[in-house]
Amino acid sequence: MTRKIDETDTDMTFGEHFEELRKILLRVLIVLLVSFLVLFTFFGKDILELVFYPSYKDFVTNKLLSGLANITGIEIFKINENGVNMFNNSLSGQFMLHVKSSLVASFILCFPYIIYQLWSFVRPALDVDVRRKSRMMVWKVVFWFMLGTSFSYFIVAPLAINFLANYEANANISNIIDVNSYLSTVLGVSLSGGLIFQLPLLVRLLASIGLITSDWMKRNRKIAIVILLTLSAIITPPDVMSQFLLFIPFYVLYEYSISIAKKIEKVNI
């Protein structure tokens, strides 16, 4: 547990701060390790099934879009009707599937604890009022991360899987997907969504300390689009569809962040 910090903690030496950070990181690593072992041992197969689920016909998004296709008569809405043909070409491949998926699940599960521990490290340097406000920010970081991860898992992942698994460069080439490639795509897209959705909080922070303004964000919208496209390309698997599907909410969040900056400017007037 994090030790209770009083006002004297603000007078800690550099060595004491470093020791406190070391203890926090050690606690985080222990919690992650214990969480991983529990998930891997008792829920490994269930977690892996969740990773494969977006490729199944009965996945909630696929079913909703299929129903929409039946109503509208637009067949393109029917996605992942036939699943994905996958193969494993590594002796340890299937074991590593459980390890990787359990590691990511452990990180997502422990994310609130990780953020709280990091906040507890910087808390002594904050005054009482800022400390109170920052406590709410901790939960906002967790909320937006979970929202972004869920959005990417339920929306972006099944669309990306359907596009990539059924794309044909040549009719003579069959798509038999490496299972590790599939795993990396789903996990990478889902975690990237959690990071992307932190943008409004970052803008709130920068606007609060006067580093950016809503007018500045409007003037540099074209540059922002290029940067957002680049970021989408960096933090997603190397395919255009996943990058584009992530860029759309990224840009929507950018416009939403402009409105956040406006509100902060009105409060500061």
What does this structure look like?
With 269 residues, this protein is mostly helical. Helices cover 74% and strands 1% of the residues. The chain is built from 9 helices and 2 strands; from the N terminus they run ααβααβααααα. The longest helix is centred in the N-terminal third of the chain and has 39 residues, at 14-52.
General shape = globular
Rounded to an integer in angstroms, the radius of gyration calculated over CA atoms is 22 Å
Question: What structural class do helix, strand and pairing data support?
Answer: mainly alpha
Q: Compute the number of strand runs.
A: 2
Mean pLDDT across residues: 84
List the helices and strands and how they pair.
Elements: H1 14-52, H2 60-72, E1 86-87, H3 93-122, H4 128-166, E2 177-178, H5 179-196, H6 199-208, H7 214-219, H8 221-235, H9 240-268
Parallel strand pairs: 1-2
Helix pairs in contact: 1-3, 3-4, 3-5, 4-5, 4-9, 5-9, 6-9, 8-9
